Amino acid sequence: MRGQGPGLARRIRNGARRVRLPRTRRGWRRTYQAVVALTVLALAPATWLNATAGPRVRTVADAPAAPVAVVFGAGLWNGEPSPYLAHRLDAAAALYSRGTVRAILVTGDNSTHDYDEPDAMRGYLLRHGVPARKIVSDYAGFDTWDSCSRAHRIFGVDRAVLVSQGFHIRRALALCEAAGIDAYGVGVAAKHDVTWAYGGVREIFAAGKAAADAVLRPDPRFLGPREKGVAEALR
C-alpha cells in the first residue's frame, strides 16, 4: 500500500468531480421528482398491505368465530416465549376460552435442536388452560409465508383467526389470503419500545418480499406430507 497515497487521493477527487449536483432549478426539480418516485415505489408494497388487510384486523372481543387460531412465533428468551410472543399466546388462549376458536395452531422455528418455538408456545398455552388435544404444532414455520402456506397445504386450514402484533398482522393476513386461507386477524397491542420500533421499520422492507410471495406463491422451505393434527383437534 506504501507509495499509493497520492494516486488514491487523485482517484477520489476525480470520482467526486463526476458526482455533480444540479445547477439549475429544472435540474433540482427533476432530482426531487426522482426521489419522490423512488420513495413511492419503495412504500407501495406496505401501502398495499394496509389497504387490503386493514379492514380484517380485529380485537379478541370482536374477532369472528373460526375453527382455528394461528399464532406466529416471535422469539424465545432462555427457552421461553419472549414477551411479544407471550402476548400473542395470551390472546390465542383468550380466543379459545371465549369459544371464538376451537383449536390453536402454533407455528414457528425449530431449525436447530436448541431452539424450539412451537414446543415453548405449546407449553405456555398448556399452563394457561388450553387442553393439549387442542394445540397443534408446526415446526417449520420459518417465516410468515411458510407458516401461511403450510397451514393451508399441510394442515388443511381454510378459515382462521391469525394472532400477531399490530405491526405484523396485516402482512400475515395478506399472505394467508394468498395461501388460500379466509382469515381475520387479532392485532395484539405492544409496548412502544425498541423492539416495536424495529418491527415497524422491518415491516416496510418485509412488505416487498410479501408482495413477491403473494404473486409467485413459492413452496415453503420445507413442505412435507399432509398432517391430520388440526382435523383431529377439531373433532
Plain-language structure description:
Pfam families: DUF218. This is Membrane protein. The structure is a single chain. The chain has helices at 5-18, 25-53, 83-98, 117-127, 144-153, 166-179, 194-216, 229-234, and strands spanning 57-58, 68-72, 76-77, 80-81, 103-107, 135-138, 159-165, 182-188. The protein has 235 residues and is an alpha/beta fold. It has a single domain, classed as HUPs (Rossmann fold), CATH 3.40.50.620. It has a 6-stranded parallel sheet with strand order 1-8-7-2-5-6, with helices on both faces. Strands 3-4 form a two-stranded antiparallel ribbon.
Explain briefly what this protein structure is.
This protein is an alpha/beta fold and 235 residues long.
